[in-house]
Amino acid sequence: MSDMFASAKSVLRRADYHITDLQTTVQGFAPNKPYIYRADRDSKTGKYLHKIVFSESFSDDISCIMFDAINNLRAALDQMTFAVAGRFRGGDDFAQFPFAKDADHWPAKIKGLKDDIPPEIIAVFERFKPYKGGNDTLWALNYIANIKKHAILIPAGFGGSMLSLPTRLTSDPSFEWTERDPFGDNHEIEFFLSDQPDLSTDIQFSFTVVIRHSEEIIEGKEPVSFLNTIRTEVALIFASVEAVCKRLGWA
Fold first, then answer.
1. Which tens digit of pLDDT belongs to each residue from 132-149?
2. What's the CA gap between 240 and 1, in Å, rounded?
3. What is the reported pLDDT for 150?
4. 167 lies in a domain?
5. Beta-carbon neighbour count of residue 33 at 10 Å?
6. Within a domain: residue 1?
7. Is residue 210 part of a domain?
8. Is residue 212 within 8 Å of 154, Cβ to Cβ?
9. Are 166 and 175 in contact (CB under 8 A)?
10. Which residue segment(s) compose the domain that 158 sits in?
11. Positive or negative CA dihedral for 11, 15, 20, 26?
12. Count of CB atoms situated within 10 Å of the CB of 89
């Protein structure tokens, strides 16, 4: 018997490829250093403002790979649901995995599937609660996928950075930590002020990469681990749906 979920699983494997690609890309930032160290004369203090400046492609590369993975994960659930609907009612009318805005909108969403999906599968979907406030991980999958399609890429940015300096520099009378925005529109992290113009050989810098967005559920999430968390939820849905299909004699 052919696998009714062959297409959906193929798309899921493609998501795995993108997640691995993203991990490789993020890990490659540290040794490749997608930034330059710079010290510019500060007009307000007359001192040198020491900063790290990233290239714009830094966040674009991460965002593009991340959304390739997101789209595959979302499509895998839709193709799985379509396969179930085709076996249950026949025909090739489209059916997609149900996501809802929140718990209040969920009943209407799941009711719309009652003619397409057997009650046993609907019960599986109910257990996973794919709406905000129910299963926020699944909700985030749909939310990010829709942003990508209808608006813009969600940018990646800095979750934290670490700067190591020798004591002889920090104890210098001219040294002053800056309190400015650490990451602005210019892809810059401003660290400190000093009378000394070039301290590149004394600076040790490291950073982490996170998702940057106003939605609190996804803000600050590390892209690779977050995608792996979503992937785990998708795999659990697949396993549960396949188990039901086997009991129904479909697989």
1. 999 999 999 999 988 755
2. 19
3. 41
4. yes
5. 12
6. no
7. yes
8. yes
9. no
10. 6-247
11. positive
12. 13
